[in-house]
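Lab manual, section 2.4: Encoding a predicted structure.

Procedure: take the sequence of the chain (130 residues), apply the prediction step described in section 2.3, and record the output as structure tokens. A sample record is shown.
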Amino acid sequence: MDEAANKNISRAVNKAARWQIIVTVVVSVASLLLAGLNAALSAIAGGASVIVGAYAGVVATRGRVGASPSGVLITLLKAEAVKVLVTAVLLLLAFKFYRGMVPLSLIGGLAAAALVSGVGLRAVDDENNK
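Recorded output:
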């Protein structure tokens, strides 16, 4: 993969992660104000699981992009599988060990971080098309 493609991918991942962190903090603060500390911590657990899962997917496939379209697709599917697995394990651990869990806040943080990652990637794509 050439240097320009690596730079674009790195910029996209950084922008998506930045948006995920911002939205997780916003949901956490809203949960804190509406339902208390346990709700805020639950929102952070939900958002953090998505962020860590996405990072694990990137790390697991870094430098392994094939030259053919099928190689690229397989690499993308591996990254997605790692992301989903890590996210699921982190959520399971949160449910198992955090006794003050507020499920609605956890889902809110999780959903916000997951949905916003696409927005961050789309913004980078728009910049590249200008």
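Check your result against the sample. Residues 42 and 98 are 9 Å apart (CA to CA).
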